[in-house]
Design a protein that fits this description.
Helix 7 packs parallel to helix 9 and helix 9 packs antiparallel against helix 10. This protein is α+β, with helices and mostly antiparallel strands and about 450 residues long. A hairpin with a 3-residue loop joins strand 3 and strand 4. It is built from 11 helices and 9 strands. It is about 55% helix and about 15% strand. The chain is elongated.
Length: about 450
């Protein structure tokens, strides 16, 4: 604005103009000394606070009174006076609305003031007291001081400041010490931030290509599809990045294929071993039956004293050997089945672990992409600001204002503003430098 005044021939009138803009800053500074705690358990009735309140009321611009439709919120300071014959003079004073939205009046009660106007709060207090059978004479509730507003970005003194009715964005900038200007902002600083921005965008492009490769692996696709966002971000390197990720996918699939082939070979060997033991179990079973028959015949002959004890012992030993062979075959068969189940489980886990790994890497890449976009947006804004402050931005740069405020639905929203836009208590005024976006800047702006 100073540069514009100089170009327009208003250099001599600059000081009166800024002095006029800084009047609200003096008002805010005087009121800042009277800001209290989050909850006022007792009314504040000190002589200094009474003098300060009266002085603030005297120096407010003519006609700038708080609208009776103003909705109360945490941080608002209320002035409550009772005008009845009951002993309530000790309650006269100022009360701060807590962050929870409640106001505590000793001996009367606790009342929810959030999103209520002062007439609505008066009616609620009266209705609550009279519902208990008590009498409540005339009393008034006025707004002594509204909750603060906040300034961030290119301001000399970002922070919170007391609100006065009639404030605009320009008043807020004045209260925050004016726009930030420094002779230390240099081209070297801007170049450093731009280098960081380029490195961030390079990493972002690599992550986008990696995510495209992971998507192809998850879908078992033969080729990686070129993401449109990557093509816009890296029109020159996009093909190279995709080719590199394609080579990685091919090598990863070869490793997976070899692992799968080894497990499938183990499954085949286990099946063959199971079949071999099944044949052995059948053969030894028949042998055990034959040896059991022979043993029964020899035992009968032994009982008839046809053969001696030695022949019976030999038959017993042969039967025991056949039974041991059958047990060994059963044990081998069980071991082969266990090996088969283990190999089948490994094959299933190989496919499952690949799916889980890909899903985890995609989620990790998504988080990193979001982080890099946010970092790129911040770095871009800082580089743009340094260009603005150092005079290197050219004619395409300007300052922009945004106001973050709570909508009626309770959601925080950003609104574009100008120097003459009125502000409200609780608003956050953001001052930014702006340049014409390039291809990478458009991608970085997605994180805003």
């Amino acid at each position: 604005m100073i540069a514009w005044l100089r170009k327009s021939g208003f250099e001599t009138s600059r000081k009166p103009i800024f002095n006029a803009l800084l009047v609200p800053a003096a008002i805010a500074a005087s009121l800042a000394a009277g800001s209290g705690a989050a909850v006022a358990a007792e009314p504040e009735k000190t002589a200094s606070s009474e003098r300060m309140t009266g002085r603030a009321a005297d120096i407010q611009p003519a006609g700038t009174v708080v609208d009776e439709n103003y909705r109360l919120g945490g941080g608002d300071r209320l002035r409550i006076r009772f005008f009845d014959r009951y002993d309530r003079e000790d309650l006269n004073g100022e009360y701060v609305v807590a962050e929870s939205g409640q106001v505590r009046l000793p001996r009367i009660g606790v009342f929810d003031a959030r999103d209520k106007t002062t007439p609505e709060l008066e009616r609620e207090i009266r209705r609550n007291v009279e519902s208990r059978g008590e009498k409540l004479g005339y009393f008034s509730i006025d707004i002594a001081q509204c909750r603060p507003f906040y300034v961030t970005g290119l301001a000399n003194k970002p922070g919170s400041y007391p609100y006065l009715p009639g404030y605009t964005v320009l008043h807020a900038v004045s209260v925050a010490g004016g726009l930030y200007r420094t002779p230390l902002a240099s081209v070297a600083d801007s170049m450093r931030e731009k280098r960081i921005l380029n490195e961030t965008m390079d990493r972002l492009g690599e992550l986008m290509a990696r995510r495209a490769r992971l998507e192809a692996e998850r879908g078992n696709a033969d080729a990686i599809r070129m993401p449109k966002e990557l093509e816009e971000l890296e029109p020159v390197r996009a093909g190279e990045l995709i080719a590199s990720e394609t080579d990685l996918m091919r090598r990863a699939r070869e490793v997976t294929k070899r692992e799968k082939a080894g497990i499938e070979t183990a499954i085949q060997l286990a099946n063959s071993e199971i079949e071999s033991y099944r044949v052995e179990i059948t053969r030894t079973g028949k042998r055990v039956e034959e040896m059991a028959g022979i043993f029964d015949q020899l035992k009968t002959l032994h009982d008839q004293r046809v053969i001696n004890q030695q022949r019976l012992f030999e038959a017993t030993a042969a039967l025991d050997a056949a039974q041991r062979d059958r047990q060994v075959a059963f044990a081998g068969h069980a071991r082969a089945r266990a090996d088969l189940e283990k190999a089948q489980k490994e094959l299933s886990l190989l496919e499952l672990s690949a799916s889980v790994r890909i899903a985890g890497e995609i989620a990790s890449a998504d988080r990193e992409i979001i982080r890099l976009k946010a970092a790129a947006a911040q770095t871009r804004m800082l580089a743009s600001t340094l260009d603005t402050l150092s005079g290197q931005g050219g004619a395409g740069q300007a300052l922009t204002y945004r106001i973050m405020r709570r909508a009626k639905s309770g959601e925080l929203v950003f609104e574009q503003a100008s120097e003459t836009t009125p502000i409200m208590p609780g608003d956050v005024i953001e001052i930014q430098g702006q340049t014409g976006p390039g291809p990478r800047d458009q991608v970085a702006s997605l994180a805003r």
